[in-house]
């Protein structure tokens, strides 16, 4: 899934760099950027942003899945987007906020249970 906003951000980079095989090539143009390089770029950005919480590039997957869930995306769709074979694997990523849990209405609240007071 490629966000139109991200695509608009990447276009100027692509026009400037004109990558041939990989959008983000590694040390040699025929290889992709390495996991170590991604890790270093991520941690430099975290440091510059003043984030003190322990995070990793993998934290972005957790955030992506959680935001999808909180915006109403069903678990099966999230599983497909995350590329998981097992729904159990997807469920590990989902950390629903307490605010989201408290906002859920009980199904009992949707029933029309108004009763007239007993007649004397």
Overview of this structure, please?
The structure is a single chain. The chain is mainly alpha-helical and 120 residues long. Helices cover 52% and strands 0% of the residues. It contains six helices and no strands. It has helices at residues 4-17, 35-49, 57-70, 75-82, 87-93, 98-102. The radius of gyration is 23 Å and the shape is elongated. The termini are far apart. The model has no long low-confidence stretch (mean pLDDT 87).
How is the topology of this model organized?
Blueprint: H1 4-17, H2 35-49, H3 57-70, H4 75-82, H5 87-93, H6 98-102
Helix pairs in contact: 4-5
The biggest beta sheet is recorded as: none
Basic shape: elongated
Total count of strands: 0
Low-pLDDT windows of residues: none
Mean pLDDT: 87
Q: Tell me the β content.
A: under 5%
Work out the oligomeric state of the chains in this entry.
single chain
The H/E string reads HHHHHH
State Rg.
Answer: 23 Å
Please give the count of helices.
6
SSE class? mainly alpha
| Helical proportion, percent range | 40-55%
Distance between the termini: 65 Å
């Amino acid at each position: 899934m490629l966000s139109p906003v991200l695509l608009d951000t990447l276009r100027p980079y692509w026009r400037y760099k004109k990558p041939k095989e990989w959008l983000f090539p590694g040390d040699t143009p025929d290889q992709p950027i390495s996991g170590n390089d991604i890790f270093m770029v991520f941690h430099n950005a975290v440091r510059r942003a003043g984030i003190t919480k322990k995070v990793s590039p993998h934290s972005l997957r957790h955030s992506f899945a959680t935001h999808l869930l909180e915006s109403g995306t069903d678990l099966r769709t999230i599983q497909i987007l995350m590329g998981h074979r097992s729904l159990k694997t997807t469920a590990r990523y989902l950390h629903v906020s307490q605010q989201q849990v408290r906002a859920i209405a009980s199904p009992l609240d949707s029933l029309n249970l108004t009763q007239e007071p007993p007649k004397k």
